[in-house]
Amino acid sequence: MTETVGSPAGASGEPEAGAREGIRVQRVYTTEGVHPYDEVKWERRDVVMTNWRDGSVNFEQRGVEFPDFWSLNAVNIVTSKYFRGAVGSDTRESSLRQLIDRVALTYVAAGVEHGYFATDADAEIFEHELTWMLLHQVFSFNSPVWFNVGTSSRQQVSACFILSVDDTMESILDWYKEEGLIFKGGSGAGLNLSRIRSSRELLSSGGTASGPVSFMRGADASAGTIKSGGATRRAAKMVVLDVDHPDIEEFIDTKAREEHKIRALRDAGFDMDLGGADSNSVQYQNANNSVRVSDEFMRAVESNGRFGLRARMTGDVLDTVQARDLFRKMAKAAWECADPGIQYDDTINDWHTSPETGRITASNPCSEYMHLDNSSCNLASLNLLKFLRDDLTFNAEVFEKAVEFVITAMDISICFADFPTEAIGDTTRKFRQLGIGYANLGALLMATGHAYDSDGGRALAAAITSLMTGTAYKRSAELAGVVGPYDGYARNAEAHRRVMRKHAAANDLVRTYHRNDASVHKLATKVWQEGLEIGARNGWRNAQASVLAPTGTIGLMMDCDTTGIEPDLALVKFKKLVGGGSMQIVNQTVPRALHALGYQEEQIEAIVEYIAENGHVVDAPGLRHEHYEVFDCAMGDRSIAPMGHVRMMAAVQSFISGAISKTVNMPESATVEEVEQLYFEGWKLGLKALAIYRDNCKVGQPLSAGRGDKGESEKAVEKQIEYRPVRKRLPKKRPSQTVSFTVGGAEGYLHAGSYPDDGLGEIFVKLGKQGSTLAGVMDAFSMSISVGLQYGIPLEFYVSKFQNLRFEPAGMTDDPDIRMASSVLDYLFRRLALDYLPYEKRAQLGVFTVDEREAQVNGTDVVPAEQSSDVDLDTMRSTVDYSKKFEQPKAEEQRVGSSTELLELRLGKAADAPLCMTCGTKMRPSGSCYLCEGCGSTSGCS
User: Fold this and answer.
1) Which residues contact 38 (CB under 8 A, 6 or more apart)?
2) What pTM value is reported for the model?
3) Is 661 part of a structural domain of the chain?
């Protein structure tokens, strides 16, 4: 919680002589006298990351220190991506404390130096609050902050850049150089090529100009070279061309024509898969292309009128085209290859806070940052699930205070930041563009029982987004009173105030449906009113405050289930295990959603088990049909309709300073007309940008063998493998345990014998008097289960079949972890699950200890210490051997290394996602970019 004190600063942004400026800071998360590090339990872990394809070790660092509640994946990614210093050296960071201190202390020191805090005590509280939020994964700065801040490197804090290019050869060559330097640093850039004269215009020498598309070829080759040089990120770039440029049709067809080439070469026998030996012959594949359309053009499309293409040098109309035909060409190209996307120029500039300085002509590669040419934006994102209370209401008050802390820190960073070019640094320091955003919206909506494509879901998303941006601008106005407004504010004051009023007016139009969104919206309304009043006095510190970025790597750092504004990818995901290995799990948001919808524990267990086996909720036992939509995802069965994605974007766009990084998924059966409709509705609904992807529209993608239709060659492969179960007998001496139990008054004993390498191999159950029928049946039952275990039947299969089985005796037990049992077999197999199955597998089956259930009630996910050690799933499950009649190199194709590959296996078709250059797994969509779950690499902003 913060407030400002002191009189307004001078126009330069420096405190006036004799004035004590600064913000007062109150504690929200921390306790006075207790450092945030002392409130958590720390543990040492080993990080070993391998290439999924060949098993080679990509990275290794042992003994790193993290809080015990951080997941394996988050630990791996932060250690490998963000720890600085040579691996193995004394200067290498080895603790999350060192990483957070390196960043947070740098920010606080800069804040003190530039007069942000009223007193030293306020600075200390700010440091503690910032540390606590980073430590507990409440938010994260974008990757460049973690890479660079507090190191000897240049203090670059921005992930998003916009360049500019003029119609001169010097400017074009500068474009190549500047773009290459940005790629080399692991970031991306976008620019508009519309100033370059068209191929229909003459040069001063009398010759004909090459046109922008020809220069795109050289830039694309440069990007491809830098990408293949071994960077941790693919080169990310955005190329924009105005719809009235005479070369617009050539630009639209550029990537579609290359897709035709790929198909022809593939059919001729060339290796055209992504990364294939012959794929380098394809051009223009390193950029996202977008057409910048005007309202004039869209109205011409609506009325089936004609539209003029204008010379770049004179502005004269060189040609007129039928607007609807040109629009159809755009939609057809996007239908064929997902490019070009569309950007709505007049909408973008209608929300521009600094139009007197220049128009917004382009965006960053992922389309969320849109502002002046030669500028940059640093990003930070909040984890929305961290603000969900136990009663499933959103804690708007704490969210407001968290936004105040984060936006203050982001503005401080511009005071010490370095930039790749002098022009970018000058513009960014003068306009101080920030990009606060969030992750986990899809998970939040599901956890609160909202369908992603629903009025209630959109209302909650709109209210949260409005509160976030309103709070950010309110804090920006308060900072303007302390350290001054941005340098370009005076010239753009009226325009900036007009945009603030537009945001506030849009907030007034939000319709609420539930106490959750109503309470958030009420606070947002109050914040906008206060912010307008403060801004009218002080101005604003920042020309831009918010964007919705993909949140790729930092989303994994915060253990987020969903990225940015995206819904969940699928209900079943791929998860790595400690010590190597992996498994598929049902999203942990699903049980929370079922609780929110009023289902009982036994019903939830049955539904989760069904999802684990089938990957969807259709026909799940006990799940009401009207609740199916809550579990709709981006891909798979019951995927969200394309317009559902567009409607969600429209619900939040008017509360975002910039734009939204998102790709709208369309089924393979979608038509060109449906693409046209999406692009047209995007304009009508007030979006700033829109991109689509139609399933399987690209052929240059690695294929996977799935459960769907298989080709004849794959069927032949399956017929050439003969599977034969092999019994793995227990040794003469083996570890065992005996458990006495009581179920409904009936007493018995469970004896369980294990393999020396810790896998259950036999059970014996004593129940009833010796020689009785019941005792004999239990002996026979025990023998059959034991033999089955030794022949490789997984224990989890038996647990899923026998738990919840009902017959007498049943009732109370003497086991504190299993207080009630519906039968003896229900008790026995739940007890075996607790003793022999890892936590992740038990979570699928709904079998938990009493401590774990208490943790769930308190809203935390706790993995017991005894279960956090290495688990050898191969020993426990894989006692089945096979012999091959023929050599078969494709036998490994069923292995999966990511959620995308798991989804491919279930759907039986390939997903449009590249392979990670670092670890070899298939990446997953993240906004308009891609993210690797294995190592955290991204293809764009994070």
Assistant:
1) none
2) 0.78
3) no
